[in-house]
Every structure is written in structure tokens, then in C-alpha cells.
Design brief:
The chain is mainly alpha-helical. The protein has 23 helices and no strands. The longest helix is centred in the last third of the chain and has 39 residues.
């Protein structure tokens, strides 16, 4: 594709980045809206998180076939179709009258939007001349960073002051505008079309493995994990499906996932890091708003504002990331990123029930300092040594892992929080007896405000639950911090290069 120039290049970059913005926004905009959606549709908050994970499952299934779809349909036409379908299913999500309809709609929304992020990244690289590719990726990455930050604020405001369906309806005008710009400018610059076969067996194994794994993670707590025959079946099925997928991809002529790409050490390292770091990061940005609303009595707007400082540093200084990367390389910047992420996690691990909004804001600000060195270096590392004909496949695989671990991170850390909260409720509560001086003193104070008997015990249990939940949050972030620090060990591998033809 011939690089564009002037105003045309800028407006296409804007349209591609806006399309990406919508997809990433939909990952986070529902985070603070889960209590409203759950209440409106009469389900529990944990069931409401399926709205997040179903989108991630659909997205992760569609992403690996991006390379094949590009060859069969063309990059521009595929991007246009995907964006139109995403916009349509956004409307269906807003019209949902029960949780089943909403979860299915979100799955289809994620499925149809699968090719959008890798294609927008690939086209952005193609329409820019070589000397402007780093700047273009920095601009694109800034948009990607801004969406999860604005999502909770926008979602909280809409859910609190209007109605949660509008978090999906707002996609309609923006999606249609972006589609029009992309098609009008790029329709005559379509990529070559080939009649390459699709790896249907690989696609089936992938869909089976991802679906069973996500079901296991979502429902495991409810069914007591592997003590349930159903959960054991899901786990074994997922393991077998992923194992067969690897074996099949290594032996078939046209695999769904090109394992040869993992011979490129920079690409392999980027996939490992996006798989671990993004799961931790996304689990964290889901947990904090959920904890603030369910335990700390924050409204959705204040929960969104509390996490908003995460975007201050990336938005103000994002344009310098490309220059720093050109000077120091992506691995050094990633090291700085993981250190900031770890500091933020350890800082959050010492929160208590008296924590004020400014300490919460500062913990998110530290995450933002890490985000400045996270997205752009990882994207650059993932395509650095990949030949242009393999870009669609490599970006599809990279973003497949990103989408899949987003849902996994949500499920794992939501479950871990619930279990650790229950543990702390039991261990702290066993000391609250009528023979304890602290307990009798507390009940006497409640009596002074006319709370007696069952009311007083209920109030004491409410405070105990609040304490247990913040201790559960502490445990989750303490674990995250140590995992982020452990990622520093593998950074030197990013300097080794080995390309494939």
C-alpha cells in the first residue's frame, strides 16, 4: 500500500485510531456499570462480570483468523465490515432485556470486532512513510491508553445520570463516521486478495479451548472448582484442545496460528509479556472500581474519577515515548514500566478501610507512569523483526493473546478477591466473640446510637465484611507486584534477534 500524505493521512489516522478507541473503550466502559447492569437485570454482581468476559472470549476467538480474512476479503473491506457489525451489535447490547441476551450480544460484539485492533495497527503502519511509523504507533498507542482511562469515567457518568444502555448506544454515531471515512479514502487502496484455505480444525480447537477455559474461570467459584465434575470436564477439555491446537499448528500446511513466528525472539517475548502483564493490568483496573462501589460506597462517577489519574502521564507525555524508544530501545522502557506497576501494586497492597480518594488516585497515577512505557514498546517489539507479509498474522496472534488474557485476568482476580475476602472474614471473625473485650466495647458504642441485639450484630458483620474485602484487595495486589517484578528477569532476551522468512 502506498503511504498517504498531508491532510488525508491525518484524517485516516484519526478514523483508524477512533475505531480502535471504540473497541478498547468497550473493554473498560462496562467495568463501573456492572452493579447497575446487574441490578437492572436482576442478577448478582459476579454474574454481571460475564458482560466483560463474554466480549473478551468473542474477541479472542476472532483475532487469530484476522490474517486469513485479510487474504480472502482485503484489509480495507474487512475493517469496514467489522466496524459496521460492531456498531450493529452495540445497538443490540443496548436493547438487551435480560442477562442472557446481553451476554450473547457482547460475545457477538467481541467476535465481530476481533479484526479491528490488529487491522487498524497494520493499516496505520502501511499508510505512513517509514520515518513516521514510530510517531504513528505512538499516536495510536496514546488512543489505546486513553480509552481504558476515559471508559470508567464515561461509563460511570452515563450509568449514574442516565441509563446503562447508553454506554453501548454512544458507539453508533462514532462507529458510522469512522467507517465512512475509512471506506471513502481507502477503498481504492485495497490489499491483494488470495484464495488461501482456512484452518477449520485449528479454529474449532481454539474456540473450544478458549470457551471451556473462560467458563471454568467464570463458574469455578460457584461450582467449587475441581470438586465439580462439570468444572473438571471443562478444565480437561480446554487442556486437550490447546494441546491439540499446538500439535496441529506445528504439522499442518496452513495453520491458524503460525508457530514459526515464535522463532522471532522479539515477537515471542512481546507475546509472553502481553500475556502476563496485560492480564495483571486488566485484572487490576476491574478490581478497583468494583471494590470502591461494592465495599467503599462510592458512586460509579466517583469510582471512575478515582481511577482517572491513570491517564494523566500517558496523555501528557505519550508523544515522547517514541523518541525514548528510538534512543534506548523497547526493553529498557518495559523494565521501567514493570517497576512502576510493581510500586503501584505494593502501594495498593497497604490500603485500609480509611483510605481516602487521594491515596487511591495516587496509586492509579503510579499505574499511569508505567503505562507510558507499556503499550508502545510492546507493540513495537511485536512487529520489530516481523516481515511485512506476516504482519497481519503476527498482530492477530499478539492481540488474540491480549484479548484472551483480559477476560482471564478479570475472572482470576475477581475469584481470588472473593476467596481471600472469605478467608479474612473467617479468620478475623473468629476473634469477635461475646467474651472479647473489643467486641463488648464495640457493642456498647453501638448501643449509644440505639443499635441493639440483631441490628448491632448486623452492623458489626457489615464492618467485618468491609475489612475482609480490603484485606482481599491487599492480597491480590501484593501478588501482582511480585509477578511484575519477576518479569524483569526475561527482559535481556528482547535484545536477541532472529527473523523468519
Amino acid at each position: 500500500m502506498t503511504p498517504l500524505a498531508g491532510f488525508v493521512r491525518i484524517i485516516v489516522m484519526f478514523a483508524l485510531s477512533t475505531a480502535t478507541f471504540l473497541i478498547v473503550l468497550d473493554y473498560s466502559i462496562a467495568n463501573v456499570s456492572i452493579p447497575y447492569i446487574s441490578g437492572d437485570l436482576a442478577v448478582s454482581t459476579s454474574e454481571g462480570t460475564y458482560v466483560i468476559t463474554s466480549f473478551a472470549v468473542g474477541n479472542s476467538i476472532a483475532l487469530p483468523i484476522t490474517g486469513w480474512l485479510v487474504k480472502r476479503v482485503g484489509a480495507v473491506k474487512l475493517l469496514t465490515i467489522s466496524l459496521l457489525l460492531f456498531t450493529f451489535f452495540s445497538w443490540v447490547c443496548g436493547c438487551s432485556i435480560n442477562i442472557e441476551m446481553l451476554v450473547i450480544s457482547r460475545f457477538l460484539q467481541g467476535l465481530s470486532s476481533g479484526p479491528l485492533i490488529p487491522l487498524s495497527q497494520t493499516l496505520l503502519v502501511m499508510i505512513n512513510p517509514p520515518e513516521k511509523k514510530n510517531a504513528a504507533l505512538t499516536f495510536w498507542s496514546t488512543i489505546v491508553i486513553a480509552a481504558p482511562i476515559l471508559g470508567p469515567i464515561l461509563g460511570g457518568w452515563i450509568s449514574y445520570d442516565y441509563h446503562w444502555p447508553w454506554i453501548f448506544y454512544i458507539n453508533l454515531p462514532v462507529g458510522l463516521l469512522s467507517t465512512g471515512i475509512i471506506w471513502f479514502v481507502l477503498k481504492d487502496k485495497e490489499t491483494p486478495i488470495e484464495r488461501s484455505p482456512l484452518d477449520w480444525i485449528g479454529l474449532f480447537l481454539l474456540a473450544l479451548g478458549v470457551s471451556c477455559l473462560q467458563f471454568l474461570l467464570d463458574k469455578g467459584e460457584q461450582y467449587d472448582w475441581f470438586r465439580s465434575h462439570l468444572m473438571t470436564t471443562m478444565g480437561v477439555t480446554s487442556l486437550i484442545a490447546f494441546t491439540l491446537l499446538i500439535v496441529w499448528s506445528a504439522t499442518t500446511e496452513h495453520p491458524l496460528i503460525e508457530l514459526k513466528l515464535f522463532k522471532i525472539r522479539s515477537f515471542a517475548l512481546s507475546v509472553i509479556y502481553i500475556g502476563i502483564a496485560y492480564g495483571l493490568y486488566f485484572g487490576g483496573i476491574v478490581l478497583i472500581p468494583l471494590w470502591l462501589q461494592t465495599s467503599m460506597n462510592y458512586t460509579s462517577i466517583w469510582a471512575g474519577l478515582a481511577v482517572a489519574p491513570m491517564g494523566i502521564v500517558p496523555l501528557l507525555f505519550g508523544e515522547f515515548t517514541g523518541r525514548l524508544m528510538a534512543k534506548y530501545g523497547p526493553t529498557i522502557l518495559l523494565g521501567i514500566c514493570f517497576i512502576f506497576f510493581a510500586i503501584s501494586c505494593f502501594y495498593t497492597a497497604y490500603f485500609d478501610t480509611d483510605v481516602d480518594v487521594w491515596h487511591i488516585c495516587f496509586s492509579r497515577f503510579l499505574v499511569g507512569c508505567g503505562l507510558l512505557f507499556f503499550i508502545t514498546p510492546l507493540f513495537a517489539l511485536s512487529i520489530h523483526d516481523v516481515p511485512e507479509p506476516k504482519l497481519a498474522s503476527s498482530t492477530g496472534t499478539f492481540h488474540f493473546v491480549r484479548a484472551m488474557v483480559g477476560g482471564i485476568g478479570t475472572s482470576v482476580f475477581t475469584t481470588l478477591w472473593i476467596r481471600r475476602s472469605a478467608y479474612h472474614h473467617a479468620t478475623v471473625g473468629e476473634n469477635l466473640t461475646l467474651f472479647s473485650r473489643q467486641t463488648t466495647s464495640f457493642l456498647d458504642k453501638l448501643g449509644e446510637v440505639h443499635l441493639h441485639g440483631q441490628q448491632a450484630l448486623q452492623q458489626m458483620n457489615t464492618l467485618l465484611e468491609q475489612q475482609a474485602e480490603v484485606l482481599g484487595i491487599n492480597d491480590c495486589f501484593y501478588l501482582m507486584g511480585w509477578i511484575f517484578l519477576s518479569l524483569l528477569i526475561f527482559l535481556p532476551l528482547g535484545r536477541l534477534k532472529k527473523s523468519v522468512s
